[in-house]
Amino acid sequence: MEKRSATAGELRDNVRQNQLFWAHSEDRQYHRMYKTGKIVRKGLGATFDFLRSSKFLYSSVFLLGIVLRGIPELLVPQYPVGYETITHYAPPMFAFREQGLADVFVEFFRFGPLFYTLMWFAHVMSRAHPYLILKVVGPLLYGGLTVSFLLFLKRGLRLDGKMAFVATLLLVFQVAALRESWDRFRNVLGLIFVFAALTALRSDHRFRWPLVAGLAVFTALSREYIALVLFVAVLGFAFLERKDRMMSLIALAPALVVFAVINFPRQLWWSYILDGQCGQYASGSYWWVVQDAFSIFAVCFLPLLPLVVKGFRRDGLLDPMIGLLLLGSFSVIVSPWFAVPGYQRWMVLLVFPFSVYAVRGFERFRLFDKRGFRKLVVILLIFMVIGVGYSSGAFSYVVLPNSWVPNNLVQSSIGWNQIDDVRGILRWLNEKAASNSSILVEERFYGWTLIYLKRANDDVKVIAYTANSLPQHALEKALSDGFRWIYLIWYTDSSWKNFEILYSQNNVSIFLYQSEAAARAL
């Protein structure tokens, strides 16, 4: 067959169809590109909105707190860092699986039951090792504290967002704040509730007073002297502002009842001087106490002090708080025989009002202005470097000897190179100790003894005495309780009256109190 040639009309139709096809293809491509661009623009807009939002601000400081406090935990994978983590938190956690929630709450009611209750839940639900739980909890609590403090600055003290962020950033990298997060987990938990309660106090929320009441109870159940800070701040603010005095007292009433039950009966003052007596908290001479107090203050606040002095101004919320903290910090210097208990722990808490004064110092030095902004960045970078060095153990300016602030956070109650020695001598004592005996344990060895001396408090009574104090008070208690065999765990190169070394492993030893009964038995 002869092939027919296309007519001119058919050719025009084919050209038109091709044009329509490519036009539709271009429309589809354009539509797809338009949709993709719309999604990208929407995503970028949402991202920028988030970066400008309060959520980003809170998320940033939360992650910053976690990362900074998590550095020492990553550097020491075997054990949790911190003094109290081993001394007070880890030992009871090993027994949590055999205890019920009510048992834990009642047992630790006088020692911050809320934290131990939360640890009971974490241990029972996760079945994780107590050491691992504590390594995770420390950074999480520090992150939570930074968020709570930022919220307090913005809504409680009503600082603008820029000043509030800088003050929180300054706080996070402070040696005093990092030291508090190192092992004072009950304090950090209580402080989270304190700043949340003070924020609620200054809010216009219709449930303001129930929130203050509930958060105050949580604070009292976390740590009793942290609750005292909240009580003084709330009631002092009501008194100074001359408003809501009765409502403040009513809101705090449940927490005050909890506080009273927890603390009664408890000694409300300590004597830090030996003065011929063996007081439980006696540390040495008056000049030693004075030197220790000023050493702690210097290592915590000396770099920050010029900004604090420049930025100090009266504030209805901060005035009562700092008044209590200064009283607790320095009453030992005025009256060492009749002092507020624990000057070290009150002093470290000064970091919170000091951070507020410091950022106001930035403002008075005009560092938030365009001309001073570079200086502000440089100062913040210096504090950041100091904080990272202190957290990681890379370097530290904390060189003054003191009883409270460690050289860095990569430490426990004893040196890492001493842990195996302590475990070794405790295993030896577990096999060799006489029945119905006791062991005197300074606070730094207390947790290790409870964990690794399997006979602890079964037929070997553990009698603890406070850190940096003498064992006479504990010895007198052991003798008055009728123990004839009294052991002591301490360093090998030390000498104690009427104690002799029984067993040593490198620089740690088990000592025996010299009595005729003990000599005949061994």
Task: Tell me the total number of β-strands.
Answer: 5
The overall pLDDT average reads 89
Shape assignment: globular
CA(first)-CA(last) distance: 126 Å
Largest sheet, spatial ordering of strands: 2-1-3-5-4
Structural class: mainly alpha
CATH topology label of the domain at 416-521: D-Maltodextrin-Binding Protein, domain 2
Helix content: 55-70%
The CATH architecture designation of the domain at 416-521 is 3-Layer(aba) Sandwich
State the oligomer. single chain
Name of the level-1 CATH class of the domain at 416-521: Alpha Beta
Number of helical segments?
A: 22
Helix and strand pattern = HHHHHHHHHHHHHHHHHHHEHEHEEEH
| Radius of gyration over C-alpha positions, nearest whole angstrom | 31 Å
Low-confidence stretches: 516-522
How would you sum up the major sheet? 5 strands, mixed
Characterise this structure:
- By secondary structure, this protein is mostly helical.
- Among the domains are: 267-365, no CATH class; 416-521, D-Maltodextrin-Binding Protein, domain 2 (3-Layer(aba) Sandwich).
- Helices cover 64% and strands 6% of the residues.
- It is built from 22 helices and five strands.
- It has helices at 8-52, 54-75, 84-93, 101-107, 113-126, 130-156, 161-172, 175-183, 185-201, 208-222, 224-241, 245-263, 286-301, 305-311, 318-334, 343-348, 351-364, 373-392, 419-432, 443-452, 472-480, 516-521, and strands spanning 437-442, 460-465, 486-491, 499-505, 508-513.
- It has a five-stranded mixed sheet with strand order 2-1-3-5-4.
- Strand 1 (437-442), helix 20 and strand 2 (460-465) form a beta-alpha-beta unit.
- Mean pLDDT is 89; it is low at 516-522.
